[in-house]
Amino acid sequence: MPIRDEKVFSDEEWIAAFSLILPPDRAREEGLGFNPMPDLTGFETATGAELAAAPACGPRSYSGDLLDLLSLVSDSCAERAWRLMKISPEEGAVRRDAIRLRVEELDRYRQEHGPD
């Protein structure tokens, strides 16, 4: 059966993504809290019968902002995020640059005004 449980992004990758926008203790808490269950994958090659027997109705849905944030963690994360968003590497690179600017703005704001 092609449908299987596996984590698309590891706990460490989620923690790394959240650490870009949160203090370390909160990043760990949010990262682990966001990624407790595996994702169901393999829907793209499953037969109708396999889909009917699947324990869920489809793969987890991620927002574009979270996937953009994950794209900053590593090139591997970026590739997986763009695949989930069904965008080209060129489109992904534009989105990655945009989220990088937003994170840098947040960092500058925190340095000028404090962490909260």
Concise description?
The protein has one domain (3-113). Helix content is 60%, strand content 5%. It has 6 helices and 2 strands; from the N terminus they run E-H-H-E-H-H-H-H.
Attribute tags:
two-stranded antiparallel ribbon; single chain; mainly alpha; 116 residues
Listing every helix as H and every strand as E from the N terminus to the C terminus, the arrangement reads EHHEHHHH
- Helix content percent band: 55-70%
Q: What's the gyration radius in Å?
A: 16 Å
Q: Which class of secondary structure composition applies to the elements?
A: mainly alpha
Tell me about the largest β-sheet: 2 strands, antiparallel
Mean pLDDT: 84
Give the low-confidence spans. Answer: none
Taking the alpha carbons of the first and last residues, their distance comes to 48 Å
Q: Give the tally of structural domains.
A: 1
Shape: flat
Give me the count of strands.
Answer: 2
Count, helices = 6
Strand content: 5-15%
Largest sheet strand order = 1-2
Structural overview:
60% of the residues lie in helices and 5% in strands. It has one domain (3-113). The radius of gyration is 16 Å and the shape is flat. The model has no long low-confidence stretch (mean pLDDT 84). α1 (11-19) crosses α2, α4 (64-71) packs antiparallel against α5 (75-85) and α5 (75-85) packs across α6. The chain contains six helices and two strands, in the order βααβαααα. With 116 residues, it is mainly alpha-helical. The termini are far apart. Strands 1-2 form a two-stranded antiparallel sheet. The chain has helices at residues 11-19, 24-34, 48-53, 64-71, 75-85, 89-113, and strands at 4-6, 39-41.
